[in-house]
Design goal:
By secondary structure, this protein is mainly α. The chain is 63% helix and 0% strand. It is globular. It comes from Sphagnum jensenii. This is GST C-terminal domain-containing protein. Pfam families: GST_C (PF00043).
Length: 111
């Protein structure tokens, strides 16, 4: 949990926001590798589980979902990161995107 927000957030920053401002490829490479590592760990944790904590959808899912959601929907990094290589994460994301969650993540929509 501690690595999810900073690593995925920094990846997004250097992938989308600072892409043209940072000429040294090291930072994007570093955070790309860290993001993939976080996704790999999440994928392993979700093996055979519907949600991060076995009892069901919890605050842990709610805390991590926006970061994973942003990789696809905000940063448009699905192909770059190879999100298809993390099937458990992608299936978990789909389960978490129930109508209320999806509506809440849509700008301008109210629950």
């Amino acid at each position: 949990m501690a690595d999810v927000a900073p690593m995925l957030g920094q990846f997004g920053h250097f992938f989308k926001i600072a892409k043209d401002k940072c000429m040294d490829p090291y930072l994007l490479e570093f955070y790309t590798n860290e993001a993939r590592h976080v996704l790999h760990v999440l994928d392993q944790c979700l093996e055979g589980c519907d949600y991060l904590i076995h009892e069901g959808y919890t605050i842990a899912d709610m805390a991590i979902l926006p970061r994973v959601y942003a990789l696809e929907e905000v940063f448009k990094a699905s192909e770059y990161l190879g999100l298809h290589k993390f099937p458990n994460v992608m299936a978990w994301k789909a389960r978490c995107m129930e109508p209320a969650t999806a509506k809440g993540l849509t700008p301008g929509k109210r629950l």
